[in-house]
Structures are given as structure tokens and as C-alpha cells.
Sequence to fold (113 residues):
Amino acid sequence: MDVDIDLTSSGWKVEKIRNSGQLIYSGTDSTYVLRFTSATEYTLNLDVNACIGLYEVSHRGSIAMQPMACTEICCDTDFAWELAGLLPEMTAYYVMDNRLYLEGDGEIILQPI
Fold:
């Protein structure tokens, strides 16, 4: 487990998410891509829409992600909106086996792209 990483070094494709202990998504053909574009800003690509938000790493392994603003073009799945709502619930991060784990009130597992 490693917390000494540069989150901005890669884009991260959502591989799995768990909410309240239940696996609610598992797939590798996902279009859901999270990017930490700077030391304070992140983006998330949903099915159709794109989102942007702010985050803060107060110390290694700790993350606070603010709710995002998203375009409202059309037709994202219910899962996409659930994912967007789950990100601000994340409070910790680490890398293990080349995957980024975001944890808090649920868990999001991402692989580098």
C-alpha cells in the first residue's frame, strides 16, 4: 500500500465501486474516467456529461473531494450519477497493485489509463 504518489500522473478508469459494502459496479469497458488535473482540481467523464470539482490532500493518504458541477447535455445512467455523488464521500486514498483506491463512505477502485 502506497500513499506517496502523484495523483495527477495518470488518468484513472473506474473499475469497481462499492457503496455501503455492496458491489454496485464492476467492469473494465467503462467510460468513467477520473483525472486529477492539478493539485486542487479534478474532472470526471460520465456516459455523456463531464464534471469538474475541487479536492484537497491535507496530508498523504487523506483526500477531501468537493461536490462536482456537471454539464447536463443528456442521458447519463443512474449509475453515472451515483458515482458522481459518491466521489465527495471519499476521505482516503492509496495505491496497491497499480490501482488507485478511494475510500470513505464506500470504495472506488480505479486503474491507470
User: Anything to note?
Assistant: Strands lie at 11-19, 22-26, 33-36, 41-45, 50-56, 64-65, 69-70, 90-96, 99-104, 106-112. The two ends are 20 Å apart (CA to CA). The mean pLDDT is 88. The first strand starts at residue 11 and ends at 19.
